[in-house]
Amino acid sequence: MRRYLTLLLVVLVVAGTALPVSPPVRAASPLVAIVASTLPISDISTSLLRRAFQGEAAEYAAGKRLIPINHPQNTPARDQFDLAVLGLKPDAVGRFWVDRRIRDQPGPPKTVPSIELAQRLVMSLPGAITYVTPDLVNPKVKALTIDGKSPGQGGYLLQ
Amino acid sequence: MKRALACALVTSLAVGHAYAQDAADPAPPADVPAATDGLPGEPRVDAPAVQADAAAAEGALSEAELQELGFSASAPAVDTSLKLSGFMDFGSTIGMDDKTRFLTGKQAFYLGNVNVYISKSLSESIRTMAEIRFTYLPNGAPESQANAARASTATADYSDFGRNLRWGGIEIERAYVEWAATPWLTVRAGQYLTPYGIWNVDHGSPTIITAVRPFVVGNNYFPERQTGFELYGRWEATSNSGLGYHLTLSNGTGPASEYKELDKNKAVGGRLFWDYRKFGELRVGGSIYYGRNTESNASSALVNGAPSTTERITLQYDALSLAADAVWRYGGMHVQAEFISRQVRYTEEGRTPQFSLATLQPRIPADAFSWGGYLLLGYRFEWGGVMPYVLVQRVKSFNGVDKDQAVPMSVGVNVRPIDALALKVEFQQVVFDDEAVFPKDTLRLCFLQAAWAF
């Protein structure tokens, strides 16, 4: 048995050094979490953001649920958000959601085809939350600080 | 061993070929956003009629446009549609030598699980779910440990000129309704998987890394499922860590614990866990279960002209189970371990002769302590979703009559060529202790499995 374990270890090491490794996912600029400007919140915790985008019930006020809106997979913003909030690289995202479904855990948020449509949904749907690049913030939506930190500050989650 | 390696090689080559073909497919045009969304089951909104360009981004959507997208400003935020999903697996167990083949039987292909999930959110906070396994059993199964005669479900099919039909069975794996009062309190009622450790919650073959369960999980030191109430919840301690709990009150175990209580004792249990997300995801937990298991026969008779029912206990013991578990995922690395123990104390009335596999005779059982654990190490490569793994186990099981003590070790490969499909090849060697039913024996097995979610 020891021989088999040694063999497996050698295979792991060789494969680990030989296989290509994806570059870390980086977007050109930080992302901001946005909600409608009328929503009575200005800050969100990492844990609440994670709960919302894991499909779990996430309330921004008593009895008021956040409605997470996702971007399509394999877009820069989505890849950056999944890595920062859910800790998932692009290749692991699909497996993550399949495994959660088997465990009977909540499923993924709804996905819209474009970042602009996500932004318009946030303007129109009370409780909707999404993430955009800072240049897409307009007077009808507001960017939330995360754990009290704004983009550009050290330790900001979606840097 | 050569055969096992050959199996692994062939599977790896086949998967690698399929992956290479996927990778060679031309990329979809960048202006077709829906085609980039590859998540199975992810609700996607396709909205050809709704302006999605940057020029329209300044404008809010009307209620009609929201409804076209599957939203509503006035309706509940949850999807209340009926959802069907599930998983299946197909595989084979190959004895690698004559001794192992004697125990495992002749090599056969088999459909292991055909499990269907049905779920629906009844409101924003109330949800129901059922999981049903379809099985060929009881057809072909030995009737008992002492009687190897095979059960037959062959019957004449009235819709086909009375030709033979073999009916199968269904197993209700879980069925419950739950009310999520707050993030730290959900109340569940019905039949549920016992919330202990990692394996029993992962549950489905596409999610489980190895091809077979560790012995200590399969030995059911904790009941796999219970019928009653479960409370659970979670509290976010910091932005990167949280504490969670489960509390259970159920009928416990027994021959018909899903709907019958043969003693007056309810079983209680619980679980506490802590998770931390700074360096990957680390979760550490502990679980407990205490309950009485009773098996009895009832007989009715007329006593002094009045009907009377007498219960005769055929087996009864109190069980205390304790478990600890930890899992750490960091990048592609996966480290997982569980330790599970069970202490069994027979009641005076319930200490009745039980069939012994070692002597093939009934024996009076002794109070017993069993324990076991495993350590699973794996690494998921980005290339083709390939994960080689090693599973090291130790089990010292004693049911009061027979000892089942062994050191099983496994090496294998789990491949997820697509998210919903897992292909597994595993070689396992089981070395029994000198006190086991098969003393100092060594079994060598190869497991092949394809498991998929839908």
What this model shows, in words?
By secondary structure, chain A is an alpha/beta fold. Chain A has helices at residues 2-18, 46-53, 76-86, 90-102, 115-124, and strands at residues 32-36, 43-44, 59-61, 64-65, 67-70, 110-111, 128-132, 141-146. In chain A, the strands form two sheets. In chain A, strands 2-8-1-7-5-6 form a six-stranded mixed β-sheet. A two-stranded antiparallel sheet of chain A has the order 3-4. The longest helix of chain A is centred in the first third of the chain and has 17 residues, at 2-18. Chain B has 454 residues and is mostly beta strands. Helices cover 10% and strands 51% of the residues of chain B. Chain B has five helices and 20 strands. Chain B has helices at residues 2-24, 63-68, 98-104, 199-202, 215-218, and strands at 83-95, 109-121, 126-135, 154-157, 163-166, 169-182, 185-193, 225-238, 241-250, 267-276, 281-303, 306-330, 333-346, 354-355, 362-363, 368-379, 386-398, 403-418, 421-432, 442-453. In chain B, the strands form three sheets. In chain B, strands 1-2-3-6-7-8-9-10-11-12-13-16-17-18-19-20 form a 16-stranded antiparallel beta barrel. A two-stranded antiparallel sheet of chain B has the order 4-5. A two-stranded antiparallel ribbon of chain B has the order 14-15. In chain B, 32% of the residues are buried. The model of chain B is unreliable at 4-38 and 47-57 (pLDDT under 50). Chains A and B meet through helix 1, helix 2, helix 4, strand 6 and helix 5 of A and strand 17 and strand 18 of B.
In one word, what is the shape of chain A? globular
Report the total helices of chain B. Answer: 5
Largest interface by Cβ-Cβ < 8 Å: A-B, 65 and 78 residues
Q: Largest sheet of chain A, if any?
A: 6 strands, mixed
Largest sheet of chain B: 16 strands, antiparallel, barrel
SSE map:
The complex is a heterodimer of chains A (159) and B (454).
Chain A: H1 2-18, E1 32-36, E2 43-44, H2 46-53, E3 59-61, E4 64-65, E5 67-70, H3 76-86, H4 90-102, E6 110-111, H5 115-124, E7 128-132, E8 141-146
Chain B: H1 2-24, H2 63-68, E1 83-95, H3 98-104, E2 109-121, E3 126-135, E4 154-157, E5 163-166, E6 169-182, E7 185-193, H4 199-202, H5 215-218, E8 225-238, E9 241-250, E10 267-276, E11 281-303, E12 306-330, E13 333-346, E14 354-355, E15 362-363, E16 368-379, E17 386-398, E18 403-418, E19 421-432, E20 442-453
